[in-house]
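User: Hi! Is it possible to get a structure for several chains at once, not just one? Here's what I have:
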Amino acid sequence: AQKVTQAQTEISVVEKEDVTLDCVYETRDTTYYLFWYKQPPSGELVFLIRRNSFDEQNEISGRYSWNFQKSTSSFNFTITASQVVDSAVYFCALSEDTGFQKLVFGTGTRLLVSP
Amino acid sequence: GAVVSQHPSWVICKSGTSVKIECRSLDFQATTMFWYRQFPKQSLMLMATSNEGSKATYEQGVEKDKFLINHASLTLSTLTVTSAHPEDSSFYICSVLGGISYNEQFFGPGTRLTVL
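Assistant: Yes, the chains can be modeled jointly so their relative placement is included. Here is the combined structure:
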């Protein structure tokens, strides 16, 4: 069975600090996809990134970066120089590459960035 | 990506009544849609996979007679919560399966249901 673990339930930082959100996953599939979503207070999910299991290159997008380590089944997300607008709940998710691509979500990490 | 809308964005109803939530794919013909439920401060849990023209596939523990899903067209799926009770109060989110390789989900803005 697939499982996603986000051990950090809530993180509080002060603006301009760097913060890393952890994600550990379990799957028996050899091909799968990993995702990060942001959910601001409005509730709408905002897609941040998708990574397939064969691409272990780290990725940087502005202040966001992702570290995919297949050896440790982790897909961590770092926000550099955090801003108040980054305050949200962040979900890591995993989908199989067969059938209907069902998504399994982690429990989420609530990030609070204070001025 | 696909643009997905939900209606209503929020609804309050009395216990025992039924509520219908619509999920529309505005710019994409969606063969497959998903329905999720999110309780306060919890994660999204998949309720069912909806396929156009056929019966929905429900996840374990989700009552198919209580949560009726209809996917009668390629742009519309509906979720009806029948005989709603306060414990059904939740945030319901739909998504559309699409993308270049047909393996991405595009999410609607969600519907907040409060049952009094």
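Chain B touches chain A through 25 residues (CB under 8 Å). Residues 26 and 115 of chain B are 29 Å apart (CA to CA).

User: Great, thank you!
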